[in-house]
Every structure is written in C-alpha cells, then in structure tokens.
Amino acid sequence: MSVKYAILGLLHYGDLHGYRIKAHLEAHFGYMWSVNFGQIYPSLKELEKEGLVRKTTVNRTGSPDRKLYSITKAGKEAFARWLEEPVENRMIFRDPFLLRFVFSGFGKTGRVLESIDRQIRLYENQLEKRRANMARWRRYGLYVGLVAQLGVLFNEAFLAWLKQARTEVALSEKRKGRSRLRWPQFLDDSPSHGARKRPRRSGPGKVRAAVQAGSGPS
Known about the structure:
Elements: H1 3-11, E1 16-17, H2 18-28, H3 40-49, E2 53-58, E3 66-71, H4 73-84, H5 96-102, H6 109-138, H7 142-174, H8 185-188, H9 204-212
Antiparallel strand pairs: 1-3, 2-3
Helix pairs in contact: 6-7
C-alpha cells in the first residue's frame, strides 16, 4: 500500500498537519501494512506537486508556523480510482516474534517460555486497549468500525494461539529426551532453487576407508 493513498484517505476526514498524519498512521494503520514513516513528508511534497493536496501555512503567535494539508478535488478523484483497483489476493502477516519462534527448537525451552509469556502480556494489554476503543472507532463509520473489530478478532486469535503454544512447549520439556530436529521438507523443495539434497556428513570411519582405498580428496 502506498503511503500517498493512506494520506489521501486521512485527509478525507479533515485537514491535518504533517505530525498528526504521522501520528495517525503510526497508531492506527501499522498492523495493516508496513508503514515507512520516513516517506510521509516526501510523499506530502509529491502530493502537493501533483496537485492532489493543498498546503496552507497557519501563523501562530509565539509558536512556529504550522503547515496544514487538505485534499483537493483532483486528490479525491485519484483516491476514488485507487479504491476501485483490484487488491492483491493474499494475506501477509509479519511478526518478529514468529521468526524467532520458528527456530526456537535450537534454543533453551525455559527462554522460549519466557518469550511467550512476554508476548502474552503484550497482547493482553493490546486487546484491552482495542476493546476499550471500539466505541470510539465505530463513531467514524461502518467501515472503520468493522476494521477495528477485525483487529480485536486477530488479537484474540493470536492470544489464544500463544497460550496454546505455551502449554505445548511446557509439555515438551517434561517429556524424556528431546525429539530430533528434522531437516524441513520445504528446504528440499524450494521452487526458486529446485530440488536439493540434504547435506550429509561423512563419519571419521568413512573418511579413513576412503583414504586407504585411494579415493580421498586429492
């Protein structure tokens, strides 16, 4: 999603200055797509150059002047065209915790449980805030309210998964021994690299036998 269209969408609600645009995107849109906050002010300049937004300087006594942005008629037309464009039909879910979790079999179980507990506390606090803000989001209209509801449902689902994961990880620690970590099949069948064989290590006995037979490395 382009930062430009997120800005144009916000300006439909009313005129905003750059800092407020940044604050809204950071607080309310970060879970929808990866927000590059460094692009906000350059995007505002481009939108103004393209005639999609208008900048007004507001003089303030005793404080620096403030630049206020409003959407133009051309901006509304460009935004309407963007709304009608087809959306890429796939779901992208990125979470730094999940990247670490998938490799946690190589770590210490106690540390993994601590990490899960931190995530549970984080998502419980986040869920409490989202539920408390639902009434406020509904005041912005049907569509904003529905997306806010989706955020609550995602939060509830991820929290339930964290608690299930914690239970299973804790049970695995009680079992005798540790199951051997297997070579993931998807690494053998990578579509971009073709089928690849799992690398094997030769034991010392095989190396000695190869050397004695004269077939060792030259």
